[in-house]
Amino acid sequence: MAPYTGEETEGTSRHLQLKQNLGKIMNLLAKNETISKGTLENALSLCAPGTRESLEAVLCGKELFFEQGLHLATAEGADLQALVAVADHLRRETVGQAVTYVVNRNINFTNVCFVGCSFCGFGRGPQAADAYSLSFEEVVRRAQEAWDCGATEVCIQGGLRRDLDGFFYRDLLRAIKRVLPAMHVHAFSPMEIDYGVLKTGLPLRDYLQMMKDEGLGSIPGTAAEVLDDHIRRQLSPNKLPVARWVEVITTAHELRIPTTSTMMYGHVEEPADWVRHLLLLRSIQKRTGGFTEFVPLGFIHQNTRLYKHGGARPGAMRDEHLRVHALSRVLLHGAICNVQVSWVKLGIETSLACLQAGGNDFGGTLMEENISKAAGATFGEYVSPEEFRAYVRKIGRVPAERSTTYKIRRTFERPEDDPPPAPPALRFAPSEAHIAYTEGAY
Ligand code: SF4
User: Fold this and answer.
1) 225 C-alpha to center of ligand 1: Å?
2) Does a structural domain hold residue 439?
3) pTM score, whole prediction
4) Tens-digit pLDDT profile for residues 310-364
5) Contacts (Cβ under 8 Å, ≥6 apart) of 327
6) Does the C-beta of 240 come closer than 6 Å to ligand 1?
7) How close is the Cα of 117 to the center of ligand 1, in Å?
């Protein structure tokens, strides 16, 4: 079959064939069905030569460079469908048919924060009527509740208080690990780590070693937003610069503290920024191997200053979500194996589509997600393991519970393998009357 030249005109048989194929892929995505190998070949045969060349290169195991990435980052129509189909193929090749999830709980211990990120609907001044800070006892109580409900991880992040004691993060970690030594504590963004370093005066390496010795299991790769200082100045001039984010992350990796990696998209950034961001993460991973996953975080705009006054786009639409997830899979191929969909940001239906565009991980059950709801996300606070498994089966994949570091705890090949559904015994500690942390948990 001759390649698509982009010159077909409406009404020609070539044009009709193209339309039919695109329709087929869109229908598969709409119905959450898997893209077959034949569809992949067909998609490749119909896209523009430059797109096909880049996608064939990655299928042959080559790393793509910036210009190729940028070309894919702006893919539309047949090119986008080919990108999605190749990303789905690479996902299958890399991690198979499992869609993993972790049973966890988010605990955002305070919303008092002086940093003032313009995309954040969560942070409050200390005098705000809905400002709150949880005691150590309350954080431990929530962690215990989560453990009793089968959680293996607590994800702990919060705002930055000016009056924070230098060893607050260490002491909070210590309090949890004293009661729940086997609970994986995934905690403290690079921004919080940097703040802890500033407050204690310890060298970064010593600070991180201390946290590891106290039981810190891994670090969320949040506070990354877009790893470009020009954009960071627009989003959050008080936030740590790119070089410091990289230094915190790579030092953690050197000490064998794994981290996740994230990117917030859909605001003031452009496709070239996604590509630079992803290539930077890829280069870090090749050096350290410390990233467990990459999590694209769609910007939730509703309650944010960045949208109201900062000229940001109102988040991404469905095609852009698919493009970012597929691009991530393609550019990170051979480096970062896991691409997570953030159901809190995307909602379930778009998450399922992104799981067929390169994604392989559903993230955490979360139990009271206190972060995205602050910025206006409306996708709920908790998805039970039973619901996750049903969603995963809906797209013909195999649900599997994992640990934070992607060790498979249990694969649920058939519905008969599932444990009997157990409604969460959580009484969900009275949620503060405020809205929650913006960046996302991971
Ligand atoms: S995103 Fe985090 S650091 Fe920024 S204002 Fe919100 S709570 Fe503070």
Assistant:
1) 11
2) no
3) 0.88
4) 889 999 999 999 999 999 999 999 999 999 999 989 999 999 999 999 999 999 9
5) 69, 72, 73, 83, 87, 274, 275, 278
6) no
7) 5
